[in-house]
Structure formats: structure tokens, C-alpha cells
Amino acid sequence: MVLDEGGYEIVLRDSARREHQVTADTDIGGGIANDLIIWVATRDYPEQPTQHTKTVQNGS
Q: What is the pLDDT of residues 9-40, one digit of tens each?
């Protein structure tokens, strides 16, 4: 939502986890995008397979 004061209101809601967060920011590029990416990345998706990371070691 665009605020009259020249910023943006960001509403993050996850009803499955009973979370609701409202913040305001003026930087639509860096701040809002970064916060949204972090918030989405921390969500739990039980129907999705777990991602595993693999460490590759140098053979020398």
C-alpha cells in the first residue's frame, strides 16, 4: 500500500503460523525487496521436500 507520507506499508501475513507483521519503508528497491525475500525464505512449506546442501571438497 502506498502511504500518503510518501512511503510504502508492507503487510506480511502467514495464517498457518499465526504471524502478522506490518512495517513501513520508503526504499521500494533495496529495503522492501530484501525484507520480503528473507521473510519468504524463512517460511515452512511442509509439502515441499527439504533442501540439502552438499559440500564439495577439492581433491588435492
A: 888 888 877 888 888 887 777 678 888 888 88
